[in-house]
Amino acid sequence: MAIPLSRARIAFANYSWSSSLSGIQFYPAARGFSSNAVTAQLEKVGFIGLGNMGFHMANNLINAGYKLTVNDIDRSTMRKFSDRGISAVETPFEVAESSDVVITMLPSSSHVSSVYTGEYGLLHGGSQLRPWLFIDSSTIDPYTSRKLSMNISQCLVKESKGNPNSPVMLDAPVSGGVLGAAARTLTFMVGGLEDAYLAAKPLFFAMGKNTVYCGAPGNGVAAKICNNLAMAVSMLGVSEALALGQGLGISASTLTNIFNSSSARCWSSDSYNPVPGIMEGVPSSRSYAGGFSSKLMAKDLMLAKASAEEIHQKCPLTSEALNIYMEMCSRGYESKDFSCVYRHFYSGDDNLQ
């Protein structure tokens, strides 16, 4: 659950922000930063978190010619990189010490906090840091992201060499799932200093095909939470309608054709259909293996629910979607793709012609 936001106004190096029951406001502050001066300082990239998403993102950076140093808690995964001659080190601090830029792709807010501020974490060096840029592509709560951004902005870069004197953090969660990570078609939603975002664009386009600048620190993760809320609700709606249609005697393929040529068309129907036998290459075609797990969807819905409660926003569909995915996890489907709700909550059948 997200930590409650303080009403106190906190000054960032590039923004100051204040929160209240009516929401969060940001105020841009002057800061010397030249994107042209730092664009060249992207060659040495650290990558922490080599799971289903991070593994492909790191590979794409290597394929694009970047010199990587990697770290993960799974030693067997690290060996897949070290066997190819990629530097694999034991701690996040070692990653920071050999990198100009560090990218993190981790499961939760607690993992991100540990990697940044834990023992031998990225900030273990105190106020003097080697990297000038930190990019967190995890999906976490906005409070944690903004707090880290503030802490990083209060440090100094050891050797600026044309970089800003203070390091910068961007929150840059992604949309597109494992398939998008493998195909390099991810969309990055980026919060933080705009000049840093512009300088980091080559990195983003080495891992994906779209970027959207969302504004101040924490806005990237806020956008991702909203995106995944909409994705969860649309998957439930499509699954519910397809299962109902089957019960009323309409085949899933017929109903899918109707959806995709009319007003019900959406990503959950035309690109990620949950019915086995409708589409190839999606989790429903392989017993819901891979993809975006029900456990991660439940986690993101928890973040959305906590954020809504913080600003007193009514979000009843968020709560209902969270209840459904929590039930899916409790019944043993936490590792299955979230589209398995069609089969295991709504009891939908395979496509029957």
UniProtKB/TrEMBL annotation:
Q: In which pathway does it act?
A: Amino-acid degradation; L-valine degradation
Which stretches make up the 6-phosphogluconate dehydrogenase NADP-binding domain?
Answer: 44-215
What Enzyme Commission number(s) apply to this enzyme?
Answer: 1.1.1.31
UniProt keyword annotation of Amino-acid biosynthesis present: no
Q: Where is the 3-hydroxyisobutyrate dehydrogenase-like NAD-binding domain?
A: 218-344
Spell out the PROSITE patterns in the cross-references: 3_HYDROXYISOBUT_DH
Highest taxon, organism lineage: Eukaryota
Which family is it part of?
Belongs to the HIBADH-related family. 3-hydroxyisobutyrate dehydrogenase subfamily.
Designated name of the protein: 3-hydroxyisobutyrate dehydrogenase
- Species of provenance: Platanthera guangdongensis
Query: Organism classification, top ranks?
Result: Eukaryota, Viridiplantae, Streptophyta, Embryophyta, Tracheophyta
